[in-house]
Amino acid sequence: MSKGPGLFSDVGKKARDLLTKDYLSDHKFSISTYSESGVTLTTSTVKKGGYSSGDVAAQYIYKNTTADVKVDTESNISATLALANIVPSSKTIATLKFPNYESGKLEFQHFHPHASLTAAVGLNQRPPLDFSVTLGTPTFALGAEAGYETISGKLTKYTAGITVTKPDSCASVILGDKGDTIKVSYIHYMDQLKKNAAVGEISRKFSTNENTFTVGGSYAIDPLTLVKVKLNNHGALGVVLQHELIRKSLVTMSSEFDTKALDKTPKFGVSLALKP
Fold first, then answer.
1. Taking the domain 8-274, which CATH number applies?
2. pTM
């Protein structure tokens, strides 16, 4: 278990990833190559709704510096530069985008054995500001985040959360959407490798009195094959089958059904990621 409480974005992340990650609705193919100089080059193609798009991404890692550049088929360019320990126990991240250069931002993260802090500012004339703070330990943490819009002088968001983490389980409560939504999640691992797990999540939106209850889990059929399933009270059933063809190279197939309207066409997604 890592030192410190982690970032606020980590609250509820384990349950959230199990219920959302790898559930695809499109077709994706990617190939990654590595060089001895530390450069990773990834080419991806995505087909969704009869429309195909692609991108080329390069990553360079040297000591405490990580640089990422991505270019897509519409000539959008995004670049991220992350520098660790400019200040001890910190990470500085700069993100730039072109032609939408006003969406760039500069973020600073600071880690302490009993606290973490993030501050981000947009790189434009009237930049938005985002802050988060987390207090606690690796086993118990509470925190909050807020967004401030300098143009209107108003808070655009504020969220609070609490999490309890044990070696084989994690429970979280998040109050978000400016206090309009509460989300409670729990994940329990059945093995040390954390491939077999059960998860449950309850979400309530106070303004509409809408409740959503989702259960799911993952099961390792063998060391190379993983199945994930989720179902909510609205009848949405999702299934993922993931198989490791060779080391780090994965084929992922996903499908989602509406069990209350079986006449609707189910959604299917496929992803093939090849890495040397």
1. 2.40.160.10
2. 0.89
